[in-house]
Write a structure and sequence with these properties.
Length: 142
């Protein structure tokens, strides 16, 4: 029997503003080399007993100091197996929601966020992003 890989359900926020720009943050995570330094949407793992929307609101508050309004679930699920520096593997199933800022001005409030910016879809195509990012933008029909 093969070793079982832990599975996580992860949520992320594709946050847009009134100008149609998308909020991106740069990940600081040396433990996962393939993710370190890449651009991503805010979000994170759903904790035990949390529902996805509650988890997403908590993660956005923790990472960028903002309250968000969740507009809708983007109809796409991304999965990937991540390998940590020391060989441990994790399979993540990622759900993404189209959101807007309800309250606050985004700023890094977590050591895992090294940089933030608002980008056009054209600008995002030039960034080194986490896998699944372009697919979520495409399925969001922004």
């Amino acid at each position: 029997m093969k070793n079982k890989i832990p599975q996580w359900i992860v949520v992320s926020a594709c946050i847009t503003d009134t100008q149609g720009r998308i909020f991106m943050q740069r990940r600081f995570d040396p433990q996962i080399p393939l993710a370190h330094g890449k651009w991503e949407f805010p979000g994170g793992k759903i904790e035990s007993g949390e529902n996805p929307t509650k988890a997403l609101k908590r993660e956005c508050k923790e990472e960028i100091g903002c309250d968000i309004t969740i507009k809708r679930l983007i109809p796409y699920v991304w999965t990937n197996i991540w390998k940590e520096r020391h060989g441990k593997q994790i399979q993540a199933f990622l759900l993404c929601y189209h959101c807007s800022i309800k309250k606050g001005k985004p700023h890094p409030t977590n050591p895992e966020v090294s940089e933030i910016r608002w980008c056009s879809q054209k600008e995002i195509k030039k960034l080194k992003v986490l896998p699944g990012t372009h697919e979520f933008i495409q399925h969001a029909h922004l």
